Amino acid sequence: LDEFSLINKFFARPHDGNGVSLGIGDDTAIIQVPPGEDLLVTTDTLVSGVHFPEATSAAAIAHKALAVNLSDIAAMGGIPHWFTLALTVPAADENWLSDFAAAIHRLADQAAVSLVGGDTTRGDLSITITLLGTVPRDRGVKRRGAEPGDLLMVTGSPGLASLGLDCITGNTVLDSAISAACVDKLEYPEPRIAEGRALREYATSMIDISDGLVQDLSHLLEADKLGAILDKNALLSLVDRQIAEDQRLDATLYGGDDYELLFTVPATHYTKLNSSWKKDFAPVTRIGEITSTDGVLLASGDSDLVPVNQRGYRHFI
Ligand code: ADP
Ligand code: MG
Description:
This protein is an alpha+beta fold. It has helices at residues 3-11, 58-74, 94-111, 160-169, 176-187, 193-199, 213-224, 232-236, 245-254, 270-276; strands at 20-22, 30-31, 37-47, 79-89, 114-122, 126-136, 151-155, 205-209, 227-231, 260-265, 284-291, 295-299, 306-307. The strands form 3 sheets. It has a 7-stranded mixed β-sheet, with helices on both faces. A 4-stranded mixed β-sheet has the order 3-6-4-5. It is globular and about 65 Å long. It starts with a helix and ends in a 10-residue tail after the last strand.
């Protein structure tokens, strides 16, 4: 199977409008960007053994490679539209490629994004996706923008993915149903696209949680030299009560790979956000408040405020 038949067999599909004038097969794709919209551009690479365990299925790898990029567009309040796929594989294994392609096309269809090009090379397994999206002019929600007194909120249950990884590596043993749910969260994260778009109306700042809540929170805070007080009970409420409190809290604060949205809203918007929040959206939980003094503190109700350590996933330390 040579490079070109591989592309045709697994990746080229008739394109479907969505602003694509020319898709896979030429020197570049040609895309019509809607007037009045800003173009959002993001890239993420997944490397075998770094971003996923080597035994991960082709379907889970494909899903995650696209999902992490979708999550970045979601975190701007944008709508994803087009992506390219730079695929480096050790061999043209047709079963692997077929599973990989099916999973990429499945999530692409679900998120209404079109594969418009890419590159195919031989080497150690690595997947780079560049995703393009749009947002109405100047409406993208940035990391910078929180104000002291804003409420800090998250979608879903950050922490589950890292518990899933701990189950896979044998670092922890959980009830089998909980373990399966956590591994599913790790391998098949659901990018919060509709939620991010809805939050455009409310959020003063937003980021997706890829490296851990505390670490990604520090990016929001650093942008404006702010601090935060986290509510321990709210954090504990996010993850199944059968899991020990310490483990739950640790996973929620420091676990990466969840791709939930972390955002701030003015306190005056809280009631309206909750009442307008759609039933099919991931739930949102208020987990703390932004303060004007830097540093992150944990409030547990019955004792003093405790400083929260900075810790999370970093590549170069
Ligand atoms: P070029 O030499 O001009 O870079 P390539 O031979 O690398 O073109 O690719 C041929 C066409 O197939 C291009 O349109 C490219 O975007 C597309 N393509 C290559 N690999 C992939 C892939 N893995 N997924 C989707 N499209 C791909
Ligand atoms: Mg090329």
